[in-house]
Each structure stands twice: as structure tokens, then as C-alpha cells.
């Protein structure tokens, strides 16, 4: 009776408790729009200037624009549902992704550095990204789209906890 | 070296014979580069003038290099104090590098033939950090006795727990019979290709490439093109095999793995270039059993160390610093792995939990996809252009599809994970199968990945992150519930708070447990 179907639903990862800030959706939308606009404008200008290749250039520009707009409409909402984070006394727990979802867990005792990064666009939306690194070259955890005040408090709290932990965290 | 009252406190110099070594190496380089240059220039000017030019250039190179090395020798000092190991070097920009002695985790000695003739060694002192060049001191060169003294002094720490005697001393010594595994690795075909390339390159220097090709064509006048290709490939493979054997002898001659009283594993090896690599046991987080396909078919395996902060050597690609045992019979590899880890049973040899059938389906799908893609391209081109390509497509399908299916089934069979004592074990791969035994205490985080397809199939990929080795080790396509339960059991209290039981479908569930 211990077939594969039986054990499949034994345990699951529960979603982390906190959602990211709602402004993150607008931030992601703006990012996607900007990354779509640049190639579309370049292709459009080239299409206006270059008579022989006009049709193909404008067609590509149109395709990129449609794909970009679709992604802008579709992904940020999905990301907002998936991207969640949680910091407990013992660990940092983050879920990210869309088609490929990723759950990352790092124990507090193994955290080495805590960084807060704010890009120009993030500053505009008063958002921050907190990056937590461990001694592993592949174990970094990023929490995107946090309110900047919340991110600062979180980074301070994490730094305090990790400073109190002895050892070199390897 | 002049004797000084307290050797551990004084600034010391490198061995002055480094100038001699540099000059000799540069002479070799000048000779190697000079010959083709002379031949190249001889076309444009009389031979004596070409020779004069090249000789002048060579003298400049050798003289300049030796002078630069003399200045470097004059300006370089090192000191090993009670607290720190320090190095001062540089003419205008004086560089000082100092490592705290308690952070020093490795002292590696290498000596190429020239250094060995003069009784010198190159010493690399490294800390456990991954920061690259910033964290290593290189003393190039010092006398062999001085190198040994540094190694012993810097790595000899008193361990409070007295090591148990059966694991001390030599753990493995070279068995010359292991050379039979050398041609089975991927080195042989690579070297074969390189040899063929070298023949073409050298003949081009002498302007004789066309003649070489013609000569080869003449040899095969009465055989078909296919026969010629087969013979040439066989010749290249033969050359590659000879090369692989030679390389093996160079790398592994005098191989010896031993444990030293200070809690250090030491690998010594090399015929011409002698190497000594020390790995502090404190840095060891596990071992990795590596079986490339050819080696695996001979029932052999290589043992690598999974340790934090190993020196990554760019200059010397073949000198893998983490290899503890060259390809050797599988039982022996397991035994050495157990001894290295101070265990009675090798964790790498324990039975593992198999992965769900969905993992097999996924592998078969990938294999068929990658095998049929070229077939489809050929078929489409064939339909559009010429029917010959259709035959090629059929041939490809006949060869590639069974091969891909075999590899996929093998890949599925090789998947496995389990917990053995203090170790988390995961195995995967077919062309290069690896079995990693990682200390459960060395896992510093989990990453769980699941694509939409995996979600539908009820599998997920678990990644244990660690400070050692490659930084992360994967468990591909484990069953969803079983994999998470395994991860939670392997590293207590890390994953468990984030798991929740879901509606249990079957009463028999609780009885299932991973093999321990």
C-alpha cells in the first residue's frame, strides 16, 4: 500500500507568511515595459529610416511589442502571487518564480552577509531588495520588492541576529 | 639561507636560484618560439640574418626576464610569525599580504622537473576563503627543506580529540595496475584530437601542410574514403591512448594518500612534477565518487574531496587539487572514502532510495527529444532538397534513438538519495555519474525547485547548499512528499517548520520511511 500515489501528498512546503509590497507589481510592470520599449523604439526608428527592410523591421517591432505587453499584463500579477517571504527566529524562507518555482531556505546561523540594494527604479517606487548570503557560492537569497523602510529594518534585524551567532558559518 | 637565531620571527628571502630557473625556462621558451620564427623569416631574408635577429630577441628575452626575476627576488621577503604569515613583494608598488595563521587551511608544494633538479619547491599557502588570489601566499621558490618546514609548522595544530589509530598513516598507495583505467577516461579521445591538430599545425609552420595531406591521401589510394576515415580515427585514438597513459604516469606516479597526526590528509604524486597537496580534515565536508562512463564500465571510480576553500589552480589544469584517489577499483574507492571520513562503512556504497517513475518518463522524453531533433531537421531538409538526406535521417534515427533511450534508462537507474549515518548521499548522472556523500552538518541551506512539468508529475529537485566543493549538490526529480520528508530528516529543524501535512490519501503512508 506504499505506492507512489500514497506518499505524494504526505508533506508539502507551505507558502511563506508575507507577501511582497503591492507597489512591486507596478515596479515589475514598469521594468517589463521599459525593457520592451527600448528594442521596439530602436526597431521602429530603423524601420522608418531603412526603406528596403521596413516591412520586416516593423513586423519584428510589432511582435516584440505584443509579446512585451502580454508579459507585462500577465507576469507581474503571477509573480506577486508566488513571491513570498518569511523570517523566523531560525531561518530565512523565500519563494520565487513562475513556471519554475523556487523555495530557498537558509538557517540564521549560517548567514554571512546581509545587503540592501535599491536600483533607480526601485528608489522611485520606494522599494528595496534584501540579499542574504551564506558561505555557499550558490546559496544567496534575494527578497525583492520590499518597502524600503521594512527592508532596512529587516536587514538590521538579520545583521543583529547573525552577529550574535558564533562560528564562521561554514 | 643564512642561519638566524629565531627562524620563526625573521624576514626571509626566497631561494636565489629562482633567477637560474627563470633563465632556463625562458631559454626553453625562446628556443620553442625561435625555431618557427626563423623558418618564417627565412623566406623573407637570408638565413644568417634571420638567425641573428632571433638570437638577439632571445637574448633580450632571457636577459630581461632573468633581471626582472632578480629584482623580484631582491624585493621579496616573507615571515611566519606566531600570529600571521606575511609576504612583502614589489618594486615600486610594494604589496604586503598577510594571512592570520589560524585561518590557513592548506599548504601545497609543487616542483616541476627544473625545480626538482635544484632541490626547490613552490609553496602555496591558502586560507579557506573563496576570494581567489587575495587569500593565497605564493612562495616561488624555496628550498625543499624549507617548504616541508613551512608545511609542518603551519598545518600542525594540536587536536584535542586524539585520532583513532587505525585510520592513521597511509590510506592508499599507487597500484601500477590502475593504469588500465587511464585510457577509459575522456582524456584519450581529446588527446587524440589534439595530436592530429598538432601534426597539422607543425606542418603548417614548415609550409608543408599540403604535402602532409597529399602524403596521407597517397597512403590510402586503394581504400575507400570511409576506410581512410576509420583508419585515421583509429590512429588518432591510438595516439590519444598513448598520451593518456603517459599523462597518467606523469600525474600519478609515486601517488600516496596519507593522514598526518595534525588532522591533515596529504596527497603526494607526480613523476616529473612532484606535488604535495594537504587538505585539513576540519575543512572536509564529505567525499564525491566520480565515475565517467568508460571508467564505470570497468567497475572503477575516482574519489574527490568535498572541502571548503580548495585552491583552484588555473595554470595547471590537470593538477586537480581535490582528487584523493585516481580511478581505482570501486570497492577500494569505497574503502578509501570510508577511511577518509573516519567511518567504518562507506556512505557512498549504501543502498539508496530510488526516484519515482515520473523521473524516468521525464528522462525518456528529454532523450527522445534531443535524439529526434537532428533527425527532424535532416528529414525536413531532405524533403525539401534531396532524398539523400532522408537516408541520413533514417540512419541517424536508427543510431541515436536506441542510444538515447539506453542513456535515459541508465540515468534513471542512477538516480538515488539517502541518509547514511551522518551523511546525506545523492547520486545522479550517466555519462559522468557522481555519488556525493555530504556531512549533514555541512548543509547550510536548502533550495527546492519545481517547474510546471515537475509539479504535474509530482516530483521536485532538491538542492543542498554547502560551503564546500561546488557549493550546491542536487537531488534531481525526487518524489514530492518523500523528497521533502527526506530533506527535513537529513538536516533537522531546518526545513521542518515550513512543511505542512496535506490530506493523506492512503493509510499505509506512515509506515514508509527512508532507508537509514
In terms of per-residue confidence, which ranges of chain A show pLDDT below 50 for 5 or more consecutive residues? 1-8
Number of strands of chain B: 21
Largest sheet of chain A, order of strands side by side? 2-3-4-5
Q: What's the overall average pLDDT of chain B, rounded?
A: 84
CA radius of gyration of chain A is 21 Å
| Sequence of strands across the biggest β-sheet of chain B | 7-6-5-11-10-9-8
Class from helix and strand fractions of chain A: alpha+beta
Q: How many whole angstroms does the radius of gyration of chain B measure?
A: 28 Å
The fold-level CATH name of the largest domain in chain B is PH-domain like
Largest interface, by Cβ-Cβ below 8 angstroms: which chains and how many residues each?
Answer: A-B, 40 and 50 residues
Describe the structure.
The complex is a heterodimer of chains A (170) and B (516). Chain A is of the alpha+beta class and 170 residues long. Chain A is 49% helix and 27% strand. Chain A has helices spanning 4-8, 23-49, 54-82, 120-124, 148-164, and strands at 11-13, 18-19, 84-87, 91-97, 100-107, 111-117, 127-134, 141-147. In chain A, the strands form two sheets. Chain A has a four-stranded antiparallel sheet. Chain A has a three-stranded antiparallel sheet with strand order 6-7-8. Chain A is elongated and about 70 Å long. In chain A, 28% of the residues are buried. Residues 1-8 of chain A have low confidence and may be disordered. Chain B has 516 residues and is α+β, with helices and mostly antiparallel strands. Chain B folds into five domains: 12-155, Roll (PH-domain like); 165-174 and 253-349, PH-domain like (Roll), CATH 2.30.29; 182-239, no CATH class; 357-413; 415-511, PH-domain like (Roll). In chain B, 42% of the residues lie in helices and 26% in strands. Chain B has helices spanning 18-42, 47-75, 113-118, 144-155, 187-205, 209-219, 225-252, 293-297, 330-340, 357-384, 387-414, 452-457, 480-490, and strands at 12-13, 77-80, 84-89, 95-100, 104-111, 120-127, 136-143, 169-173, 256-260, 264-269, 274-280, 284-292, 300-307, 323-329, 416-420, 423-428, 432-439, 443-451, 459-466, 472-479, 499-501. In chain B, the strands form four sheets. Chain B has a seven-stranded antiparallel sheet with strand order 7-6-5-11-10-9-8, with helices on both faces. In chain B, strands 14-13-12-17-16-15 form a six-stranded antiparallel sheet. Chain B has a four-stranded antiparallel sheet with strand order 1-2-3-4. In chain B, a hairpin with a 5-residue loop joins strand 19 (459-466) and strand 20 (472-479). In chain B, helix 10 (357-384) packs antiparallel against helix 11 (387-414). Chain B is flat and about 80 Å long. The interface between A and B is large, with 40 and 50 residues. Strand 5 (100-107) of chain A pairs antiparallel with strand 18 (443-451) of chain B.
